[in-house]
Design goal:
alpha/beta
């Protein structure tokens, strides 16, 4: 329905985030931006990004701090001894921005995206505000939360819920709708070839599909011409077919710019041979994140057997030899999985350190529709009814019976203690 709109005033909205914590990891609402780029040919398109337009100074590599205001916690979080915040633009700022764009007129359609399922309070808040400002506008709610929790999303007041995860046909996301762009985000593929039991990639994108190289290069060039200095890749399997795709793409980027590149989503370490490590270093990849998850055999199987111990150790060794330090080889380790053996987490942390990497705990979030979620919800049915319980910041510590707050903090302390070894 949305892609067929013509001759209308369209407002695209990225909502504020209501949560205990929020960090800008080169995150942009790519789905919304691709859609707005497609629609702007036949419509008058405006972007309201409540996160990006509430930036407060630069942190590192183009990332920014987001303005936050403490707010009352939802009732379900009442016993959690942490502060809860509204991250992003406040009501007065939003009204002022929209007044400058529309004056006394109104958008015909308001397209609201959504990300984490447990961020829906921010979606509801912006939906109510926009409904009060523009009661005649047609509101459409899409994005990850809407796709994973359509029944719950239907209670937020949108006229339509869009769950179709069709692949964008626009050549690039509409980054030029921002007043300034400090970094770019490049997605070279949709979906994932793996089927990890804790991940929703197969639900959101049933088909793994690589975008044509020429299209991705055009996407990069469009963002480069906006003056970006940093570029983040958010693929689930960036290094697959690296000889045919990743190498020529990054060669092009490195030849005509000095852009710093980043991989916050975690690289497939099986693909990091000596040549790959050298190319990553030589072509200015400044932030390397590695995916290990666990050395526990069961969790490794549930993670599609993406990596073996020896493959991880060799990958880190290759990265060190290419010029990266231990601090550059930050490695994701899953914690809080259903029935996870806590000693296996300690063992995985030690293994990462002994291999020359830096362990970084990734707290598990139960995602609707995944095998792990379906297993957990049998004993915790409220998890399906209330998405706030799916928040990884508090699920492991306060709602899950698989780990307690003291043990989780102990594991975090172990990650920080001591030094990592240099691979021999």
């Amino acid at each position: 329905m949305v892609t067929e709109i013509k001759g209308k005033r369209i407002l695209g909205v990225n909502p504020p985030v209501f949560d205990f914590a929020y960090m800008d990891l080169w995150s942009k609402p790519l789905g919304l931006l691709f859609l707005l780029q497609r629609l702007r040919k036949d419509n008058d398109v405006v972007l309201l990004d409540c996160i990006a337009q509430a930036s407060k100074g630069e942190k590192t590599f183009g990332r920014t701090k987001t303005i936050k205001t403490e707010i009352e916690k939802p009732e379900v979080y009442g016993n959690i001894p942490r502060r809860y915040y509204h991250y992003g633009l406040q009501q007065e700022q939003i009204i002022d921005l929209l007044q400058k764009k529309y004056g006394d007129e109104s958008p015909d359609y308001i397209l609201v995206t959504s990300a984490m399922t447990y961020w829906y309070p921010g979606v509801r808040w912006i939906m109510e505000l926009l409904k009060s400002l523009y009661p005649k506008a047609v509101t459409v709610l899409g994005g990850i939360y809407a796709s994973l929790c359509p029944e719950h999303a239907a209670t937020l007041g949108a006229d339509f819920i869009e769950t179709d995860r069709c692949e964008p046909v626009a050549p690039y996301p509409a980054f030029d709708l921002y007043d300034t762009v400090s970094y770019g985000v490049l997605l070279t593929s949709f979906g994932c070839p793996f089927s990890c039991k804790y991940c929703a990639s197969k639900i959101l994108w049933p088909r793994y599909h690589r975008r044509p190289l020429k299209t991705v290069i055009a996407d990069y060039e469009f963002q480069r011409n906006l003056g970006i200095k940093d570029l983040a890749f958010y693929d689930d399997a960036l290094l697959l077919d690296k000889e045919e795709f990743f190498y020529p793409l990054t060669e092009k980027i490195a030849k005509d710019s000095n852009i710093r590149m980043h991989t916050p989503n975690g690289l497939h370490v099986r693909q990091i041979d000596k040549k790959c490590a050298e190319i990553l270093y030589e072509r200015n990849f400044r932030t390397i994140r590695l995916s290990l998850e666990s050395i526990d055999p069961k969790i490794a199987r549930d993670s599609s057997d993406k990596v073996a111990r020896t493959e991880y150790s060799q990958a880190v060794k290759n990265l060190h030899e290419a010029g990266y330090s231990a601090e550059d080889c930050e490695t994701y380790i899953l914690v809080g999985l259903p029935n996870q053996n806590i000693q296996s987490v300690r063992d995985t942390i030690s293994f990462v350190k002994d291999s020359g990497g830096i362990p970084k705990l990734a707290e598990y979030s139960p995602i609707p529709g995944t095998p792990y979620f379906n297993e957990i919800v049998k004993n915790m049915p409220m998890l399906k009814i209330e998405p706030l319980l799916q928040n990884n910041t508090v699920y492991c510590s306060y709602f899950s019976k698989d780990i307690d707050p003291l043990t989780l903090q102990e594991l975090k302390n172990i990650c920080l203690r001591g030094t990592c070894k240099t691979p021999s």
